[in-house]
Amino acid sequence: MIKVTNLKKRFGDLVVLNGIDFEVKDGEVLSIIGPSGSGKSTLIRCLNFLERPEAGVIEIGGVRVDAEKCTNKEIRQLRLQTAMVFQNYNLFKNKTALQNVTESLIVVKKMPKKQAEELGMELLRQVGLEDKRDNYPATLSGGQQQRVSIARALALRPHAILLDEPTSSLDPELVSEVLQTIKKIAEMDTTMIIVTHEMDFARDVSDHVIFMADGNIVEQGPPAELLDNPRKERTKQFLRTFHANRKR
Amino acid sequence: MNFDPSYIIEILPRIIQYIPITLLMAVLAMILAIAVGLVLALARNSRNRLLSSGAAVYISFFRAIPMLVQLFLIYYGLPQLFPVFTKMDAVTAAVIGFGFKQAAFLAEIFRAAFLSVDKGQMEACITGGMTKLQAYRRIILPQAARNALPGTGNIFISLIKETSLAFTLGVVEIFAEAKMQAAESFRFFEAYLAVALIYWLLIIVYTYLQQKLENYLDRPYRT
Q: What residues form the membrane-spanning segments (chain B) (predicted)?
């Protein structure tokens, strides 16, 4: 269970998150959509303190952190509850595909190397890249890199996986292989929060969708409701622009 | 023309005997410079104002003063303030002098190398649960090392050459030996040419080794 209460973040004078509240139940997939600059990436990056929120309470998998009074130890505890998939993959460039998956298992979880490699291979198989185990990231396509990074996230057996625009850097023809992989993992009851611009995918995979604009949650609900029958004018406007752009 | 090539052949073996002391000073000074340079680079990049400005002052000072002045300051100057330094031998003084000076240059090379590593790498580390120390050791440092290698190699080449200044403290290394041979035989050109060739050879060998290392570190990045 993930519970976020009154989360606030500003960059200088600019209010990026203006008191955000939401919940994600175990095994659920939450998609966050919204225009650029709406604060959705900042929101997901606040959940593991890559950005430090000014106020608010974040509770993930039984670890509760109050942004106004928290220690580095608490932050690290919170970080161990989630894993992240980045827009530009951020695979460790000096490590092979398999090493990328096993690195944290060995260094953080102190798992014996052999056991970590077995688990790593199993995860690479799950994302369809077992034959790339010894490839360095430089020799993989964007889609392959992102699939390795999903395997890396799964390896930690986190309470939830945070995906920050996982397909936004990809060539159009590589998007679907990554979306397929994410969908497969969602079907295994993995708790996920996905920031995305892929509306069809959000509709297909999520249990719940949040629409954000200007640092606020404008509207939230089941995907069919929010994406097909939005109640708020701001949501309608965003979806209209989105569909218009796609037809062009 | 008064030039006797056979004399070069004759004294080469005598000069070569002192290659170990030249290399010893260069390698020890390099190790010291890397250690101090690394600390300086991290301090310089730190958000702590005191650390960062302290490192900046160090770098500014040691980049500015001439090597010879610094060697004299350490070897002839320090014992006046602190008598314990009278026990310091000339090789130690030279190594400390070379090391502390080149650390200032290395610090700038390392700092740039750290900054050249994409900050997403650190984010991937800490979201994976690593501590910053683990992240530096396993991911950031190895990537920065590759970027720092060419510049670091230049520093080592400078160091090999600068060891010739140690003769001013009374250390007998290859240059001092050549100088003494020249004074004895009055064959200055041949003696200095011989030692020049030895420096050249040392640096050719080093350059070859560095190329090998660069190829090795480059493996993960070849497409």
A: 15-43, 55-78, 90-110, 189-209
